[in-house]
Amino acid sequence: MEITGRVTADASVQKVNNDKQVVNFSIAINDNYKPKGSTEVKEVTTYINCSYWLNTATAQWLKKGTLLQLFGRIGMNVYNNSEGVAVGTLTFHTNSIKILVFPKKEQTSTANSAVKEKKSKKTADVPF
After folding, report:
1. Torsion over CA: 39, 45, 5, 7 (sign)
2. What is the C-alpha to C-alpha distance for residues 69 and 62, in angstroms, rounded to an integer?
3. Which of 18, 23, 36, 72 has the largest CB neighbor count within 10 A?
4. Cα 29 to Cα 48: distance, rounded to the nearest angstrom
């Protein structure tokens, strides 16, 4: 199965039994649709918890906002919360990760605006 979404928070590496490690992260998948007989577009966001067991070094690249294409299988965890209500969460057991787009950095956008401002000053000094 293949899913595509944005990382909602920086990935974390956790140790489990027998000193194995897993990379845990969550993605958000945005979708929209127009209900029958309506002109209003409804937006829906689905959050999926993901686990990746193959390479913990991958966690350094899975930062908030990164757009990923994931391959693997989906599962569901069902449990009773503290109020005794049954709750379910989707889990994606990832076999392969493809990074499509890295998140924009604040510093990069600030540096780019400074360069643009400098260029605009140069063109204003031109006598023709």
Report:
1. positive
2. 12
3. 23
4. 8
Rounded to whole angstroms, how far apart are CA atoms 87 and 101? 32
- Residue 8: both structure tokens together: 């909602």
CA–CA gap between residue 83 and residue 5 (Å, rounded): 31
Tokens of 107: 């510093």
Residue type, 69: Q
Q: Environment class of residue 97 by beta-carbon count within 10 Å: exposed (0-12), middle (13-18) or buried (19+)?
A: buried
- Give helix then strand counts, H and E, for the chain: 1, 6
Whole-angstrom distance, CA of residue 119 vs CA of residue 128: 16
pLDDT tens profile 49-98: 999 999 999 999 999 999 999 999 999 989 999 999 999 888 999 999 99
Alpha-carbon gap, residue 109 to 115, rounded angstroms = 10
Determine the residue type at 65.
G
CA distance 74 to 101: 23
Query: pTM for the whole thing?
Result: 0.72
| pLDDT tens figures, 8-48 | 999 999 999 888 999 999 999 999 999 898 889 999 999 99
